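Project standup — Tuesday

K.O.: blocked on the structure for the chain from last sprint. Re-posting the sequence here as requested.
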Amino acid sequence: MPGTSNMVSIGGRRLRVTNLDKVLYPETGTTKGEVIDYYTRIAPLLIPHVAGRPVTRKRWPDGVGTDDDPGMVFFAKDLERGAPSWVRRVPIPHSTGTKDYPLVGDVPTLVYLAQVASLELHVPQWRFTPDGERGFADRLVLDLDPGPGAGLPECAVVAGWARGILSGMGLDPYPVTSGSKGIHLYAALPDGQTTEQASMIAKELARAIEADHPDLVVSSMKKTERPGKVLIDWSQNNGSKTTIAPYSLRGRTHPTVAAPRTWDELDDPGLRHLLFEEVLERTETIGDPMTALGFHAGGRQAETGPLSAYISKRSASRTPEPVPGNPLGATPHGEKPIFVIQEHHATALHWDFRLEHDGVLVSWAVPRGVPHSYKRNNLAIMTEDHPMEYASFEGTIPAGEYGGGSVTIWDDGRYELEKWRDDEVIATLEGRPGGPLGRVRLALIRTEGEGEKSSWLLHRMKTDAAGRPQPDGIPVGPSAQTDERPPARRAAPDEDSSAAPPVPPAMLSTNATPGIARQSAARWGGEPWVEGKWDGIRALGVWDGSRLRLHARSGNDITHRYPELTDVDAGLGDAPAIVDGELVALEPDGRPSFPLLQGRMNLERPAEIAREARRAPVRYYLFDVQSADGDDVTGRPLRVRRRLLEDLAADAIPLISVPPVFDDVDAALDASRALRLEGIVVKDPRSRYTGGVRSESWLKVKHTSTQEVVIAGIRPGKGGRSGTFGSLLLGIPGPGGLQYAGRVGSGFSDSTLTQLLRTLTPLRTDENPLVGVPALDARDALWVRPELVGEVEYGEFTPGGILRHPRWRGLRPDKSPDEVRREDAP
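H.V.: unblocked you, prediction finished:
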């Protein structure tokens, strides 16, 4: 509701968002929340086109208004004084004084700009150099602007003429429908072109096309010469001018987008500007048509600069890894430099060791991780420098991409540097409180080669910087996956070992099917240990005998967010303990609800926390214990730890409990389905507590939700699907008729697309068979008689009855439409 304010965490940055329900586009009812959602989802495609460029913005704080009553707009160059300190900025002198321009290189910055209603983002056709100076022009842009009596069709014709000339010059152009009136053409320029030279090239090209086609083209800015013609505006190549960024929203009455297009689309006589929902939908199937002009700038930017190797190995449209957003390096922060150690399950498991230095993360791959003793040295291979944004990266790099596999943060923190030479680095690292690294003095010594792929030794020093003996740490790497109990981390001198808990395992379990789970249980011997999988968040609880403190998996203290658990005597006994469990919010019918929990996860204001604690109290379901009565029990079998855990929680408050376990996989699956849980976790009762190590001793089995649906319409295909269809409109019989249930556009093979289109074409009809289909989805739909039943896999139903994240599974010829019903209905 208007006036609301929430503190959220996005990409490791904290940001306050307000008035998410505020309507910014009255004609369509589009809210600020939807604008933020758009920029969040389009970020991987948008950021490569703006990275390293100063961003000027057009802001509509009160919305764009209507044609009769337009909203107030502000053209902003200087970053607002209240902008978060982590928003990167670069100063540019002006006659009126120096202005700090924002640099957009990550999702949090985009969300901040959307929060202050910066609907339009404009950038020049040059990037900053690493030393903060204005670089050469790297792109040429032609703005094809139709005058009165002309429109997009005329612009498309002129674009085709320009394409022929540019291609003959070796400059392949990429079209963008501007979202306003015309078309922009972009082409990568060879290195070394000044903005003045780029402007002259564009001007001469515009004049040449005007000379050949004077009846349709004009290169003069005089308004008297423009009726019925298309202006080729070449002036936007001037170094002081900007152009709307690809994928930026427009501040029009409808939320249109400056949308990159294919040349085939420009041949469509029905060519029009696209709304933001349409842009999001098409990117799922065709990606970014102008990827080649992303942050690579046609490949040229990959050849120079401190992050050139990083950029050259990645495509932002295919990997979730962060795009370098600030070519000037890290913003000075006056603190010690940072480090991060990431566990990387790629072709071979290894740990990525990264130290901040000169504005980048200097990186090594360490197959066996940080040595836990000074008696051993581990091999480290230097890799390419990484951007500072990588320090908070966790995610899955798709298979087939460079470094494909999952990445999680093993530990991170800051370090004190003693020595940095080309062949030797010595530093004292201090990880997050209670983390697996602790405080440790390390040395990196080069043994062979130079630069990337050179070989180094990672050595744990025998003494710290003050000459005191260093404690051993937790083993990392293959040796930690043996049956031997890893030694517990000992506190360093003067360290308060009770200040925070050890970081919970990054991933204790691996995914499995029910069949694999049953086979593993049989292989383990004895009865399996099967628990419910709750749709909540992991939390470690530190009990000091009177009060419970909670820590997230990241190590952050989240005690204050759950006063119903932490402001009372939790009843876990008189002795200290560290327990592991899951925070869960329940719907009134007892079903776990992650969306309900999300309303609690990022609150900071005490009044809001207290209100939500009363409205949606959180439960703490315990499933393991690390220490009891001051003793480390991680090396004891699970069956022993379970007994200790049950003793600890015997007198706990009602909101804290130890859920029951099953000894049969199939019975547990049936029970979890009946309770509508996320799935089950099958555990070996002999297993030890292993921190941060994947283990087949814990197997997750998630339920897959499927739904039968009636096919009611076809959305025409675009781009690579122009010969088939883009998505199917779905319905489920309900009160009043065939209720709209959303659309499915993924899960189709090429052969399936062709076969389905062949099957559906004879069923075409002019009548809409659906009830409740939004006008935007119905606008270009091709309706079919609702006679065919299909099946989709999906995440959940929205409160409005729409399938979330559906994926096509296939036709169900054994089912008739009148047999279809909503599977999760009571």
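K.O.: great, moving the ticket to review. The longest strand covers residues 405-421. The chain has 15 helices and 48 strands.
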